[in-house]
What we know:
heterodimer, A: 7-stranded mixed sheet, 4-stranded antiparallel sheet, 11 strands, B: mainly beta, 6-stranded mixed sheet, 5-stranded antiparallel sheet, about 55% strand
Amino acid sequence: DGGITQSPKYLFRKEGQNVTLSCEQNLNHDAMYWYRQDPGQGLRLIYYSQIVNDFQKGDIAEGYSVSREKKESFPLTVTSAQKNPTAFYLCASSEGQGGRAFFGQGTRLTVV
Amino acid sequence: GESVGLHLPTLSVQEGDNSIINCAYSNSASDYFIWYKQESGKGPQFIIDIRSNMDKRQGQRVTVLLNKTVKHLSLQIAATQPGDSAVYFCAEREPGANNLFFGTGTRLTVIP
């Protein structure tokens, strides 16, 4: 069953903690992305990676970090520097840069 | 990237009627456009795409129209069903861009 798997589905974070969101794909796609979605709003790009061991900042990268050690995996860490982390996080991948993106089912992060 | 916007944030239609969801884009050089459907609490699902060298593309019950003269994109859904209720996003890709830019979305509600 090919696709993108995000985990966990729900995540709660205490103030000052770092948390890591998982994203795995078995579509053999080179490009992967992380988006943030706030209620009633569109998707904003956090980070993207065009190839293993390479990634670029998106529009709202402050307070986030990523790694791309394997083609299949693109984890996102929400650091304590992110002042308003409560949001719905979506991971996506595409075969080529800027191509049709396939999305995971999202992780809802809540700060408690 | 330049903004991708939608004319109507909400749209209600009767079951069985046709739906038209509109999207205005501001970058006349954008060369690729996609429509996504997002159900509550889930990731966006691909519906249909179109390249800038086309004016119209049809899928199963859906048609995308591209009017480059006025920078307008629309999604037509034939015989709308309750399962079509969701938020619909358009996305555009600017030439040379490594990712898609998303609009804020339109919520479609189908009235039984």
